[in-house]
From TrEMBL:
UniProt entry tagged with the keyword RNA-binding: yes
RRM domain sequence ranges: 33-115
PROSITE patterns reported for this sequence: RRM (PS50102)
GO molecular function, one term: RNA binding
Source species of the chain: Paramecium primaurelia
Presence of the UniProt keyword RNA-binding in the record: yes
Protein's name according to its UniProt entry: RRM domain-containing protein
Keyword annotations from UniProtKB, A to Z: RNA-binding
């Protein structure tokens, strides 16, 4: 039987345990517990997006915010919250480039969400 060193996180938290000490996944100074996700299709529903992120330890919620440009083009802002910055870092590194649809050419681009309080403190 094939023993996968990175088991599907949907079934247990071993995935988190295996990679939390890996340097690639260590939170940086500007890390936050919230992620901004670019590349979500305009017709996506919160439930669809949550299915991508929910299997990961520390998942709290997805926030989809519908916006419109001055010219009337609609788009979605997507934020995903986790318990802490380490969990958010692991998810960001793991799902970077994830293709939402089979015709998706670029995949998701995931960043740490800006923390306005932190930015104000850094400017002082």
């Amino acid at each position: 039987m094939f023993n996968n060193p990175y088991p599907n996180p949907m079934f247990n938290n071993q995935y988190f345990e295996l990679i939390r000490d890996n340097q690639q996944f260590q939170p940086q100074k500007d890390s936050t517990h919230s992620l901004y996700v670019d590349g979500i299709p305009n017709d996506a529903q919160e439930r669809e997006v949550a299915h991508i992120f929910r299997p990961y330890p520390g998942f709290q919620r997805v926030r989809l915010i519908k916006k419109q440009t001055q010219k009337g083009r609609e788009y979605l802002l997507c934020f995903v919250d986790f318990d802490d910055a380490l969990q958010a870092t692991i998810v960001m590194q793991t799902l970077q480039g994830y293709r939402f649809d089979k015709n998706d050419k670029t995949g998701l681009k995931i960043y740490f969400a800006n923390n306005p309080k932190q930015e104000k403190q850094n400017k002082k």
